[in-house]
Design a protein that fits this description.
With 384 residues, this protein is of the alpha/beta class. It has two domains: 191 residues, Glycogen Phosphorylase B (Rossmann fold); 169 residues, Glycogen Phosphorylase B (Rossmann fold, 3-Layer(aba) Sandwich), CATH 3.40.50. Helix content is 41%, strand content 16%. Helix 2 crosses helix 3 and helix 8 crosses helix 12. The relative contact order is 0.12. The mean pLDDT is 93. The structure holds ligand GMT. Ligand GMT binds next to helix 1.
């Protein structure tokens, strides 16, 4: 292997393709690394939603799982490891970067074993639910711990998640905290009069929520907060995304007499064209290890109103570029939103501060460089 300190690297990136934040971050990182001339091989079971433009340095490998009748549970992790090993050999990959420990890191470790004695470092990025939900499920806990302990480097998207991981798995092996980033060219404060007009007639306020409607997102609390807003001023709530709690939320909006004021758009691919048309973004999650959706809103100059829990206070600064709602007083999400929406000057100042935070504190170039440093450091320490 030639000296890895400055040459372009050949990197396998493994992620989930769906609308979850981990797939978005992995794909955006892959795109950024490819722009810098690294050869990026992306592995997933379907094309990731954000992989929308050709780049000669970006190669997609869709992992297919055979459905032999004996396999009641087709072994995706083995199909992934097999494909990864083939590409690692054919394209001489330097390392693999797994986003989500289960099963991506485990597949990476298997390939590392297959390729021995040639070195094949495994870098793992923990996104949150792989630790807080999946990792603590007794059926996955041992394997998650093994995956994290045996990775050559582990990164975590927030200090909160790093601390949680150390507590849950008793690890003290120097995890790097590398926050998420957003493409601030794509997500920018540019309203579209047509889209805005679909949600707001005249001076109506537009409030948005984006999530996968899983229980941890507590999308119902966004509707409760909106009921308070709707009582105080003409307004519309736009709910974007889909998932297990959507039907309950639709019923809740009906019961509250808000059927005509809450719009459910389902999963959307061009969130960047919708978000800038909001006045406020609500994210009442029980916790978020980071809260990428809030950062996307901030990049669009939209003020996020989020729970003061998990890694969210590392993204949103209360009263500066958003509002942090006390986790024990979620009923104040509505009243604090009303106050802010009623103060045009403060709302505009905080929206501008949110945009600046997204461009400066979560700078894409800086964060991509931090990942590059991790890659180069693991390539320096593996035996050549
Ligand atoms: O939030 C989800 O349900 C999806 C999940 C994922 O793994 O894709 O999101 C997690 O990773 C994102 C990207 O790092 C973070 O921004 C989210 O905060 C985190 N979700 C939770 O911690 C609940």
């Amino acid at each position: 292997m030639s000296n890895a300190s400055d040459r372009a690297l050949r990197i396998g990136v493994v992620c989930y393709p769906t609308f979850g934040g981990s797939g978005v971050v992995a794909t955006e990182l892959g795109k950024g690394l490819a722009e810098r001339g690294h050869e990026i091989h992306l592995f997933s079971y379907a094309p990731p939603a954000r992989l929308d433009a050709f780049d000669e340095h970006l190669h997609l490998h869709e992992v297919e799982v055979s459905s032999y009748p004996l396999f009641k549970y087709p072994p995706y992790d083995l199909a992934l490891a097999s494909r990864l090993a083939e590409v690692a050999e054919d394209s001489d990959l330097d390392l693999v970067h797994a986003h989500y420990a289960i099963p991506h890191t485990v597949a990476g470790l298997l390939v590392k074993d297959i390729l021995k004695p040639r070195p094949f470092p495994v870098v793992t990025t923990l996104h949150g639910t792989d630790i807080t939900v999946v990792g603590q499920d007794p059926s996955y806990a041992r394997v998650t711990r093994h995956a994290i302990r045996n990775s050559d480097a582990v990164t975590s998207v927030s200090t909160y998640l790093k601390t949680r991981t150390e507590e849950v798995f008793g690890l003290e092996n120097g995890m790097h905290v590398i926050p998420n980033f957003v493409d601030t060219e794509r997500f920018r404060p540019q309203r579209n009069p047509h889209i805005r007009g679909c949600f707001s007639r005249g001076n109506e306020r537009v409030v948005m929520h984006v999530s996968n409607f899983r229980p941890v997102k507590r999308a119902g609390l966004a509707i409760e907060a909106f009921a308070t807003i709707a009582e105080a001023m003409p307004s519309t709530l736009v709910m974007i995304g889909d998932g297990p709690e959507r039907a309950t939320c639709e019923a809740q909006a009906g019961k509250l007499g808000l059927k005509n004021r809450v719009r459910f758009l389902g999963a959307q691919t061009d969130i960047e064209n919708l978000l800038p048309n909001a006045d406020l973004f609500l994210l009442p999650s029980e916790y978020e290890s980071f809260g990428l959706a809030a950062l996307e809103a901030m990049a669009c100059g939209v003020v996020p109103v989020v729970t003061d829990a998990g890694g969210l206070p590392e993204v949103v600064r209360d009263g500066v570029d958003g509002l942090l709602i006390d986790a024990d007083a979620m009923e104040t999400m509505g009243t604090r939103s009303v106050e802010l929406l009623g103060d045009e000057e403060r709302l505009a100042a905080m929206g501008a501060a949110a945009r600046t935070a997204a461009t400066d504190r979560f700078d894409r170039g800086d964060i991509i460089s931090r990942y590059e440093n991790v890659y180069r450091s693991v390539l320096e320490v593996v035996p050549t």
